[in-house]
């Protein structure tokens, strides 16, 4: 099995467009080739979300890596931003209204930046990860991700409820 070196792209080499009705954007590497159904993935989604973006073709083969979004033209930057927001959207938990154990799972009722949400978590220790001190990423039973950016900034009731799990 041979591996080829990673190809890096500069922002000035890239143009992205969203065709009407297309699920994924079209990405052009100027004067070289076009990826008709491109996928954009963050290589470091939590620690460095705007640097090192993997650009893949429709079959999931990596075509190259964009070092940074800084310097993309405005239309391409907008297409990349929409694509990444869709792929990586993680609601931010601003408040925990209630937390109850039901049938071996924890039922969360929370307030997020997009309004109220309810989700269930099984096996807290396996599905909640402290990314940095006080920053938690939580995976619900249906595969949705939620994030607490800074547990110490939650109101006192939310902190007490969260303490039940920690």
Domain count: the total is 2
Largest sheet: 4 strands, mixed
Order of helices and strands: EEEEEEEHEEEHEEEH
Instruction: Give the terminus-to-terminus CA distance.
Output: 45 Å
The strands making up the biggest β-sheet line up spatially as: 1-7-6-5
How many helix segments? Answer: 3
Count of beta strands? 13
> What would you call the structural class?
alpha+beta
- Helical coverage, percent range: 10-25%
Q: Give the averaged pLDDT, no decimals.
A: 92
- The amount of beta strand, in percent, is 35-45%
* Rg, alpha carbons: 20 Å
Shape: elongated
Low-confidence stretches are none
Structure description:
The relative contact order is 0.12. Helices cover 16% and strands 42% of the residues. It folds into two domains: 8-88; 93-163, no CATH class. With 166 residues, it is an alpha+beta fold. The chain has helices spanning 74-88, 124-127, 156-163, and strands at 8-9, 14-17, 26-29, 33-35, 39-42, 51-56, 62-68, 93-102, 105-112, 115-122, 128-132, 135-139, 145-148.
């Amino acid at each position: 099995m041979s591996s080829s070196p990673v190809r890096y792209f500069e922002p000035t080499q890239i143009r992205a467009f969203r065709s009407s009705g297309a699920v994924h954007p079209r990405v052009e590497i100027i004067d070289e080739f076009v990826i008709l159904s491109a996928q954009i993935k963050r290589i470091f989604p939590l620690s460095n979300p705007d640097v090192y973006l993997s650009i893949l073709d429709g079959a999931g083969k990596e075509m190259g890596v964009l070092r940074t979004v800084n310097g993309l033209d405005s239309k391409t930057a907008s297409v990349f931003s929409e694509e990444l927001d869709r792929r990586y959207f993680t609601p931010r938990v601003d408040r925990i209204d209630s937390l109850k154990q039901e049938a071996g799972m924890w039922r969360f009722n929370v307030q997020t930046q997009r309004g109220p949400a309810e989700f269930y978590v099984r096996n807290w220790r396996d599905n909640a990860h402290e990314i940095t001190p006080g920053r938690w990423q939580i995976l619900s039973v249906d595969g949705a991700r939620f994030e607490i950016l800074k547990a110490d900034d939650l109101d006192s009731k939310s902190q007490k409820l969260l303490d039940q799990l920690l």
